[in-house]
Every structure is written in structure tokens, then in C-alpha cells.
TrEMBL record:
Source domain of life: Eukaryota
Cellular component terms (Gene Ontology): membrane
UniProt region (Disordered), positions on chain: 485-521
Organism field: Karstenula rhodostoma CBS 690.94
Presence of the UniProt keyword Ribosomal protein in the record: no
Membrane topology recorded in Swiss-Prot or TrEMBL: Multi-pass membrane protein
Protein name per UniProt: General substrate transporter
Length: 521
């Protein structure tokens, strides 16, 4: 069955892609489920910290308070774990494979969850969060890599956006579960939200056992017959079909070409200077893109929204917070379509424009008419519009682009560095925000949105000048495009040639020989 929603390839070299089947689509999209780990884990802790039972167990007598330092340690240690986890995963994924690294991440994560659930002191809880964070770091970096490498090019953006969709579901589930258990009169109130994390890891880890490894990983390891088997499962085509032969030939030829020109060490990630196709430029782009995604200010809403809404005099602050997570979930699927139709670059440019307009409106109205009903209403409406703009653009597109811009020799490390940057800035912004808005500190109130409006303006400039259009190209064609054009002209670039011209037969001969040999053995 042909099933290619919004398929939009830019072709020109005569190669025909295998039709996207529903089964193939579902195989590729399953890994997106890992987004739940990311979203749920970042989301559940704020509600748990406020639970009475939790404070009684972890706080110190006589009034069972948890000190500010302990609180920020409990919250931020996860980001420390994820940061290092993501970085290390970059090497592990090249070594044991993408799929196995994600499964390893789930196992590490589970150890962290067991410690958290068993903990009755901060001394056990913190290492538990650190270890779980380490696992989330593995999962969050390598899922993007895996999905980008297994997906057919026409729906790659939509498939990777699925990951963002699951992040938003994870965030929403966390606030719903916290809401549901906070009144439980025993340790179940916080142990249930903690224990549930394990379920997500179990589903992801078990499901991945059944999925094939990334064919590009096998190509990198020189295991062409395994790459062919993997591709044939993913595309739902017989191993000797012209689709599989052609796609494999392109992967192999491109990898050979690239590895003649570059090595794959950490140091090599920083070589090549400022040329658009240079490794340094691409790594800079990935790291900066994830930094900018945090600079949009989105986590101000998700981490501090409740406190902030209350501070500026809005009643029902919990309800409003849940509404923002729901807007986030329902808006994200729009990007499945727009990311392939309008492209990554357009989404990033217009999304940031939309967000900065909302932010400046909130800031201006909130400052001029502080505390009024109108300012409150304006804050709620424009916060929801702002989340809509984020969820349909920067939320998914930042992840999609980092999966597409690196050449295979350094792809795992490039994606890992970019993901680590997301976690680093997630931490930095989470850490400095209270200093800007707390009443006894900066007390900026709605003026804080001037800061986010300004950082969002930088996001527009960044996307306009530096982000290339990668829609509809195979990952190998993206390499070519970066060599031949500039970000601003990239949307018009068409692939004209293939590295694999004439190679398909040779590679086919090698893989069939190997496969025959394996069958005999
Ligand atoms: C970001 C997270 C954010 C989430 C909100 C993700 O893409 O990386 O930091 O909390 O989107 O949906």
C-alpha cells in the first residue's frame, strides 16, 4: 500500500524512492515514543516537590521544609545527567549501534527510577535522578539520530516531529498524574509519578528490540549485507528490489566519499572552518539551534508558568498551566504536515516571528496596565498563542534539523553535542529564571517577556542567516546541498547527481554474495 502523507521529495537525479508504506511508517515512528521519557521526566518533579508527603519524607524537621539548595539540586541534577549522558551516547552509538544505545539508555534509566522510588532521603534521590538523567541523555540524543537515519526522506520531518509530539504528551501526562496523586495520603502520592517513568522505558526498550538497526550504522561498520536486510525491513521491499539496491548504493557511495575526506573523532567535529559544509559550521549550527530553541523562552511557561501566573494576580493558575500543556499537545501534529510542505527553514523563521510578537504584546500590556483584568486576559490568550507558535515550529523543527545536517562520519557525535546543548541551556534558563522574576530578587513581572522577546528576535536572525532548507532531500543530498549553496538559497537547490552513479551493481554483487554465504552457513 502506498502511504505517503505530505510526501515532498526534491528529486532530480533519476532515483525513485520506495513508496512509503503504513507499516514502514509505523516502524520508523515507534522510536518517537521515547519523547515521553524526556517530557515526563522534566515535567513530573515540579508537582512532586510541592506534595506534602514528599516534604515530610525529604524535608528537615521541625517544619519539614526542603531547602532552596536541595530543591535546585533535586531538579537540576537531571539536566547534569542528561548533558553527560547525551555526550557519551555520541561515542557509544558509533560503537554498539543506535538501537542498542537507546536500549542501554532505557536500562540505565530504569536503575535510576528504582533508586528514586526506593529513596527516603535526598542522599538516595539525587543519585537516582542523576542516573535516570544519564539514561534520558542516551535516549534523547540517539532517538533523533536513529529516526533520522531510518526514515524515508519524504516523511523524515514528520516522523521526527512525532518525537516532539511525544515530548508534549509526556509533559502533559506528568502534570495530569501529579494532579491526580497529590492528594493521596501516603508515599504513593510521589512514588506513583516516580514509578510510572519506568513504564515508558519498558515500552520503548522492548519495542526497540523488535526494530531493525539503522542501515547507516551498518554501512559505517562496513556490514553491507546487514544494511541491506535492515533497509528491506524498513521499506517493506524485497532485499533484491531496485529500491533497496539504489538506496544502499547511495548510502555506501556517500559514506566512502565522506570518509575519504574526513575522520570521525570528537576533534574532527570541530574541523573544516566556516564553510557551510565544514564540520565546524554544522556542529555550531546544531549546538546553536538547540540553544536558540531554549532561548525562545518556552520553558519559562512550562517550568515556572504556575508560579508566574499566580504572581501576576491570575486565579486558577493550575488550570491555566494544564491548558498550556494541552495547547502544546494539540498544536504539535500540525507540524507533521507543515514541516514537509513549508520546510524547516520557513517554520523556524515564521515561528520565531510569531512568538516574539506574542512576547512583546504580553510585556507591553502587562507593564502599561499592570495587575488589570485586561492584562491578565492578554497574558492568558497570548501565552496560548505563543505556545501554539512554538509547538508548530521550533518545538519539532529544532530536532528535525539536527538529525539532518551532519555527515555520517560525525553524525552521532554532532547530534549528541546538539542535544547536550539543549539540556545545558534548559538547565541554565531554569536556574536563572527565579533570579529574574522572584519577588525578593529581580521581580520583573511581565517585563520578563521583554527578555524573551529579545532572545526570540535573535532566533529569527539566526534562522534567516544560518539555517539551510533540508526538506525532501536524503541525508546524503543534504551534504551535497551544503557544499553547493548557502542557507538563504538552499530551498531552491535541486539534486542533480548521485555519488552512487554506476555503483549500485557493484554493491549489489557484494551484498548478494555475502547474503548467499550467510544463508549457506
Ligand atoms: C524542548 C523542551 C520543551 C518542550 C516543550 C522541546 O522541544 O526541547 O525543552 O520543554 O519542547 O514542548
Amino acid at each position: 500500500m502506498r502511504w505517503a502523507p505530505s510526501a515532498a521529495s526534491r528529486g532530480g537525479n533519476g532515483r525513485v524512492e520506495a513508496p512509503v508504506t503504513l507499516r514502514g511508517y509505523l516502524l520508523c515512528v515507534f522510536a518517537a515514543f521515547g519523547g515521553i521519557l524526556f517530557g515526563y521526566d522534566s515535567g513530573y518533579i515540579s508537582g512532586v516537590l510541592a506534595m506534602e508527603n514528599f516534604q515530610h519524607t525529604f524535608g528537615s524537621a521541625p517544619d519539614y521544609t526542603i531547602s532552596t539548595m536541595q530543591k535546585s539540586l533535586i531538579v537540576s541534577i537531571l539536566s547534569a545527567g542528561t548533558f553527560f549522558g547525551a555526550l557519551i551516547a555520541g561515542s557509544v552509538a558509533d560503537w554498539i549501534g543506535r538501537r542498542s544505545t537507546i536500549i542501554a539508555g532505557c536500562i540505565i534509566f530504569s536503575v535510576g527510577v528504582v533508586l528514586q522510588v526506593a529513596a527516603s532521603s535526598v542522599g538516595v534521590l539525587v543519585p537516582g535522578r542523576l542516573i535516570a538523567g544519564f539514561g534520558v541523555g542516551f535516549v534523547s540524543a540517539i532517538i533523533i539520530l536513529y529516526m533520522s537515519e531510518v526514515a524515508p526522506k519524504a516523511v523524515r520531518g514528520a516522523i521526527v516531529s512525532g518525537y516532539q509530539f511525544f515530548i508534549t504528551i509526556g509533559l502533559m501526562l506528568a502534570s495530569v498524574v501529579d494532579q491526580g496523586t497529590h492528594a493521596v495520603d501516603n508515599s504513593g502520592s510521589y512514588r506513583i509519578p516516580m514509578g510510572l517513568q519506568w513504564l515508558w522505558a519498558l515500552i520503548l526498550g522492548t519495542g526497540l528490540f523488535l526494530l531493525p538497526e539503522s542501515p547507516r550504522h551498518y554501512v559505517k561498520k562496513g556490514r553491507l549485507d546487514d544494511a541491506a536486510i535492515s533497509l528491506s525491513k524498513l521499506r517493506g521491499q524485497p532485499i533484491d528490489s531496485p529500491y533497496i539496491r539504489d538506496e544502499l548504493a547511495e548510502l555506501v557511495a556517500n559514506y566512502r566519499f565522506e570518509s575519504e575526506h574526513m575522520q570521525s573523532s570528537w576533534l574532527d567535529c570541530f574541523r573544516g572552518g566556516w564553510a557551510p559544509s565544514g564540520n565546524f559550521r554544522r556542529v555550531f549550527l546544531g549546538i546553536a539551534l538547540q540553544m536558540m530553541q531554549q532561548w525562545t523562552g518556552v520553558n519559562f511557561i512550562f517550568y515556572y508558568g504556575t508560579t508566574f501566573f499566580k504572581q501576576v494576580g491570575i486565579k486558577n493558575e493550575f488550570l491555566i498551566s494544564i491548558i498550556t500543556t494541552i495547547v502544546n499537545v494539540v498544536s504539535t501534529p500540525i507540524s507533521f504536515w507543515t514541516i514537509e510542505k513549508l520546510g524547516r527553514r520557513m517554520l523556524l523563521i515564521y515561528g520565531a516571528v510569531g512568538m516574539l510578537v506574542c512576547e512583546f504584546i504580553i510585556a507591553i500590556v502587562g507593564t502599561v496596565d499592570e495587575g488589570s483584568k485586561a492584562a491578565g486576559l492578554c497574558l492568558i490568550v497570548f501565552t496560548c498563542l505563543y505556545i501554539f507558535c512554538f509547538a508548530t515550529t521550533w518545538g519539532p523543527a529544532a530536532w528535525v534539523v539536527i538529525g539532518e545536517i551532519f555527515p555520517l562520519p560525525i553524525r552521532a557525535k554532532g547530534v549528541a553535542l546538539s542535544t547536550a546543548s539543549n539540556w545545558l541551556w534548559n538547565f541554565v534558563i531554569g536556574y536563572i529564571t527565579p533570579y529574574m522574576v522572584d519577588e525578593d530578587k529581580g521581580d520583573m513581572k511581565a517585563k520578563v517577556f521583554f527578555v524573551w522577546g529579545a532572545t526570540c528576535t535573535m532566533c529569527v536572525l539566526f534562522a534567516y542567516f544560518l539555517v539551510p532548507e533540508t526538506k525532501g532531500l536524503s541525508l546524503e543530498q543534504v551534504d551535497r546541498m551544503l557544499e553547493e549553496t548557502t542557507p538563504r538559497k538552499s530551498a531552491k537547490w535541486q539534486p542533480t547527481d548521485s555519488y552512487a552513479n554506476g555503483d549500485a551493481d557493484k554493491i549489489d554483487a557484494i551484498t548478494s554474495q555475502n547474503l548467499e554465504h550467510r544463508e549457506k552457513v
